[in-house]
Amino acid sequence: MKIQCPHCRLSGQISDVNVPAEGMNMDCPRCKTSFFVKKEATASWKDTATECPACRFSTFSEERFDICPTCGLVIKDYNEKKGKSGSAPAQPAPGRPPRQQEALDPAEIRQRAEEDLRRLEEKNAGRSYGSPGAMPDLPPEPAAVVPLPVQLVGWTFVLAALAVIVYSGLGISSYYDKLREVAGDQFLAEEFAALHSVWGGVVFPVVQILFGAVTIGVAACFLRLLPWARRGLEICAWWGLAYVAGDQLVSLVNWVRRSSSDATILYYLIGVVSTLVMLALLAAPFLAAIWFLRGDLVSDLFEEIA
């Protein structure tokens, strides 16, 4: 009987024997969509048989089949090839007992029906390439091409994150080196503690190292065009922008704290302008990256992949 997948329109034939009278659900071998198959009356009696002339499978009943559920032989093709359309099915060979139909559970029946459909699909595909019964060696689907701008942005994030990790690691090492140098002098130790804290010398650099490691991982997934990586890299850019803004704000507060009691307005103005200039220079790459990640080139590419 002929069936067709309602989703991808794959059509083919399966043996009537494998379809119970009440029908059954089966999965399309191409798109894996589940659909219901109902048994229908055979169109032509002469293209059916109760015994397979090839493998000697027999139903041992009045039930006829157009495709052998064991070897997949199409009775119509067999009759046309042998020039015996309308003749009675071949008799079993002497001394060879016919195969009886086994009692199959619904799961095995569905599996055999799917194998019938898959085998017919492979056979038809092989015929179109001149080698009946075998699937052609189709070329593999080409991998998604990563545009050059996407590669540049991804590798820029990787290199920038590596630079942050190295810089932060050197900062922690320098902090402990200086701490060991002033350990024997109480006056120098107090001066060092006043200028350098554990937060600035250890905690913040450790946070920077962790953030850099996460950014490298997200950027690597971005270069592999994983669907979620575009949004993840944009979040990393926003976090980097927030960190830069917070760092410059802390620098401005320290500038004000270091001022003397008779500091002029020019002193504070220089601190504010310096902070704004540094903030603009450091924030520009993050803003450019966010703008690029939200652009049509990247958005369309990742939406197509998703």
Shape: rod-shaped
- The Cα radius of gyration reads 37 Å
Determine the structural class based on helices, strands and strand pairing.
mainly alpha
Strand order of the largest sheet: 1-2
Separation, N- and C-terminal Cα atoms: 37 Å
Question: Could you explain the architecture of this structure?
Answer:
- The chain crosses the membrane at residues 152-176, 196-223, 265-293.
- Residues 82-106 are annotated as: Disordered.
- Residues 1-36 form the Zinc finger/thioredoxin putative domain.
- It is a single chain.
- With 306 residues, the protein is mainly alpha-helical.
- The chain has 2 domains: 2-128, no CATH class; 148-305, no CATH class.
- Helix content is 55%, strand content 5%.
- The protein contains 8 helices and 4 strands.
- It has helices at residues 75-82, 106-128, 148-181, 186-195, 198-223, 229-257, 265-293, 296-305, and strands spanning 2-4, 11-13, 24-27, 34-37.
- The strands form 2 sheets. It has a two-stranded antiparallel ribbon.
- Strand 3 (24-27) and strand 4 form a beta hairpin.
- Helix 5 (198-223) packs antiparallel against helix 6 and helix 6 (229-257) packs antiparallel against helix 7.
- The longest helix has 34 residues, at 148-181.
- It is rod-shaped.
- The model is unreliable at 84-103 and 127-138 (pLDDT under 50).
